[in-house]
Amino acid sequence: MNRAPGPSVRLKLTLSYAGFLMLAGVLLLAAVWVFLLRYVPDRALIVSGETPTHGVFPVRSNLLRVFAPRAAAVMAFLLVFGLVGGWVLAGRMLAPLTRITGATRMATNGSLSHRIRLPGREDEFRELADAFDTMLARIEAHVAEQQRFAANASHELRTPLAISKALLDVARTDPHHDAGEVIERLHAVNTRAINLTEALLLLSHANQRSFTREPVDLSLLVEEATETLLPLAEKHGVTIETSGDITPTVGSQALLLQLTTNLVHNAIVHNLPEKGTIRVHTGVRTKTVVLTVENTGEILTPEVASTLTEPFQRGTERIHADHAGVGLGLAIVRTITHAHDGTLTLTPLPTGGLRITVELPATATHADG
């Protein structure tokens, strides 16, 4: 935005300080003058060598001739003192703002690792500097996350494309190769690429929060998700147990259904090889509703659990089963949760498996009740 050049804030503050000091000096001298005229006896105003017969007005005129030059000298001193002192004080007061401006320019040029770290006790400038440092830290973390996400997404998309190219090269160079096998493998690879692209679009849509909010009951979404994934659970030998209360919240029904489906799907494919269990519970707290999904499985460390919501993370190793997903399931859950102003908690269970808790704001009517 182009702006016309103007005086600096330091100059404005200097002139303000000097002007205020001059005004205070004028008022003080005026008070002194009024005090001399009103409360000092006439005989005290007689200049040495003169007689009282000259009258009071000549005496006061003599006083004015004596007072005016000294008052002018005082005003000149106050002007110089106000300008110099104001310039110094304004510089000291604006020094933190100069540091903040420098950090802003560095961040504009791409240096997100720089921090102001303004010393001293808490005041408005230090509060602004701390808030700016916090903002820079979040931006730096977000940029790093986006860079990792872009690199991982590129790798994940390149893999099916490379496989498709290899299959097509085989079909072209070997006309006698089984075309049905090539078509079947191409179909599987293409399906995976489509699923990955749709997951990326869903993740972007949730990040932008460009969705309509409406009343949603999480318990109904749990029923729908478990019914949809019941055949997959039976195939993996996993039992799903559901319980809980009506859990009214506000948000996108489609996104929250995707969240619930991803949680149940993740609990199915990352479970025991046989006789696994999933417990899905919905509950109500004072101002929030809670969705909890627990599954049996291998023992996870807290360090591994903390990375599972990162894009393209699949536990301790990559899984290439037919229903393993594209590595964005819990990343989508985290994004949808944050888009609905909720919190997501992953807790490894001592006996193996994982407990995932999603806490969302309850509807206003239910929270008041």
Structure summarized in a few sentences:
The chain contains nine helices and seven strands.
Compressed to H and E, one letter per element, the order equals HHHHEHEEHEEHHEEH
How many domains? The number is 3
* Spatial strand sequence of the major β-sheet: 2-4-5-7-6
What gap, in angstroms, lies between the N and C termini? 50 Å
What is the tally of helical segments?
9
Q: Which spans have pLDDT < 50 for at least 5 consecutive residues?
A: 316-323
Q: What summary fits the major beta sheet?
A: 5 strands, mixed
Rg estimate, integer Å: 38 Å
> Strand tally, please?
7
Mean model confidence by pLDDT = 80
Structural class: alpha+beta
Can you name the CATH architecture of the largest domain? 2-Layer Sandwich
Superfamily (CATH H level) name of the largest domain: Histidine kinase-like ATPase, C-terminal domain
**Coarse shape:** elongated
Give the arrangement of secondary structure elements.
Layout (H helix, E strand, L loop, with lengths): L8 H31 L16 H53 L15 H50 L5 H30 L5 E4 H18 L2 E7 L3 E4 L1 H17 L6 E9 L3 E8 L6 H6 L21 H11 L3 E6 L5 E8 L2 H5 L1
Parallel strand pairs: 2-4
Antiparallel strand pairs: 1-3, 4-5, 5-7, 6-7
Helix pairs in contact: 1-2, 2-3, 3-4, 4-8, 5-6, 6-8
